[in-house]
Amino acid sequence: MSASLEVQPLSGVAVITLKNPPVNALAVSLLHDLERVLREAQAHRAVRGIVIKGDRGKFSGGFDITAIRAAQSAQGGKGVIDGSSLLTAAVEQSSKPIVAAIEGLALGGGLELAMSCHARLSAPGAMLGLPELNLGVIPGFGGTQRLPRLIGLQTAIKMILSSKPIRAEMAQPLGLVDRIVPRAELLTEATELALELAASGQWKRTLARTDKIEPAEQAQMIVGFARAQTQKKAPAGVEHPLLCLDAILEGAVNGGEAGLRKEAEVFERVLTSDTAKSLVHVFFAQRATAKVGGVSDRGLKPRAMRRVAVVGGGLMGSGIATSCIQAGIEVLMKEINPKFLEAGIARVRANLFSKVKKGRMTPNAFEATMKRLKGTLDYSRFKHVDMVIEAAVEAIPLKQKIFKELCDACSPTCILATNTSTINIDLVSKLIPDARDRVCGLHYFSPAHVMPLLEIVRTEATSPQVLLDSLAFAKRTKKVPVVVGNCTGFAVNRVFFPYGQTAMMLLDMGVDPYAIDKAIGPGKGFGMPMGPLRLNDLVGMATTAHVGKQFVENFPERSYANGIVPSMVEAKRLGETTKMGFYKYGKGRKAEPDPEGIAPFLQASKAAARLPAVSSLSPQGIQEAIFFPVVNESARVLAEGVVERAADLDIATVLSMGFPAHKGGIIKWADTVGARRIVDGLEAWQARVPAQHKGFFEPCALLKQAAARGIAIADAGAVSQLSTKSKM
């Protein structure tokens, strides 16, 4: 990790190369090194101009996020370098012109470095952006001040608030890039430009520019409009986008220096916020899921999954097939008759063609991708596949029959995976005891070609090689894998089974159904994509009833069954598919409350349940009633070692159920609330319900332990798993 300096003797240009693979992240030590070599170049008598570039075809992916995490852990958030002052003093105020030669990417601090230079050249296709808001912070190296001065206030605000990068071809007409040149000529062109600027004796310092930024009165109007729009969209408690606008406005009205001071003030404030800590946690959690003890640390090498067979062409099977062929994997889809096979292939075609319609795939790429999909009605070609993913209906005898047939038809090294969402994997492989080491679960979430999470379900017999192969397969198909244990519901569905059941209990206590969804859903609610009742309508009442039955049978002591969903199924009020459920649906799937339509079902269930009435419950009260049991089940999952670490459960709940990323995932959020408060809340609800339902709210041992010791649930889970492993 370094910033190297090479002075070209003939031209008199100093070339500084940022070196920190893989993306030349601006680690604190690299920034100090950059400052050192810049001073050397400026002091060197033979140097007339300077070019800054990144090593191995990448300018810089931004500031090192590990330094942000370290600063968040330090007292008062201290420890992040004052990059803004460094770039202003060492780069922008340089006595010699500096040109940024951008390749690959210039993101976050990388783009802020480039903007502090006096000119910017880019190779074609480079990505430029300021994604800091995705981490709960704001651009802290001068980005809130320099970007508006280069491309105008309105465009800069849109770019910063969206956190989306743009290509160099779009950046150049905006003014963010001065010129686009072929990659092979980039360094030569940058060198020549540096010499031209040196010869002219005049170069523009970005912070002093006023030609693109709007006058103060107009700036206030632009920022005011952006603030109003942001307030409408921002989840409750998320303030960093609004504070970012404060910094932008300060600079627009009172000048760049004042803006930099405001930016530094805001950055320091948001750095240690719960939102920033949660989003940084999610960032690292997502990148750690492939590290699995006893699997990724054994020195094994993953085998390539070049050919995959999918058994079943329904919604899940076709989605899985779509995901595979998009990743360049050949897929063989098996169905039981020509009609079903034709329908399955048509679903894959429709999945892909939606990308064409949105401009995300060319017609030629569409046809080339579809050629990777073949159909079959038998197993004759299965001997050539590397992996089979069974996606048949959730019936144990059928799955057992399929796996027996697969064992006979496939090679002895072929991975046999099931996409079941609830069935014990050992039951699926019951008839093939000699092949259990190559059996696992690959639980996709619907729609499989869109949802990013893939639960890889391991049994006691699943070999490390099969798990490693599955992790590599997930990465190739652009999924985030989480290895989970073999239990009812695995990880996500298991920890979330109380989510819907608590909602039903609240209905039986007389709580307004639409108040529940409002408290849990987006906007000013908890922040889930939708409330539990709206989710029931989306998933379908029949599916809800089927899955709910599995949990009631497996966890009877802590499950709640009521009559609302079964009675709606009986009445053919199945949700979106019948345009009636807890809501009624018109054109465009728009959900409208239907209090009169659901009143008979609620009244009948309430009368049968005989639970104590709850006259009123605040939104926070609803949120705690819904999520504290989810935390409780999550703690059980940690104690049982179903997941490798608490962070795996966090990222799984974010990527599957849409748990708000700014809350960090279910365990991270729970630790923000505190185990003591959660235990007290569960026990308070326990006291309100009859004896037969007290088990639903009974705090588990690990949660009680965390509360008693005053430690984080994540830490209690880590201790519990360490203790379990030491006894094995």
From TrEMBL:
One Pfam family from the record: 3HCDH
Cellular component, GO annotation: peroxisome
Domain 3-hydroxyacyl-CoA dehydrogenase C-terminal: 489-585, 625-708
Involved pathway(s): Lipid metabolism; fatty acid beta-oxidation
The keyword Lyase is annotated on this UniProt entry: yes
An individual GO BP term: fatty acid beta-oxidation
Primary residence: other
Family: Belongs to the enoyl-CoA hydratase/isomerase family.
Protein name in the entry: 3-hydroxyacyl-CoA dehydrogenase
Species name: Prasinoderma singulare
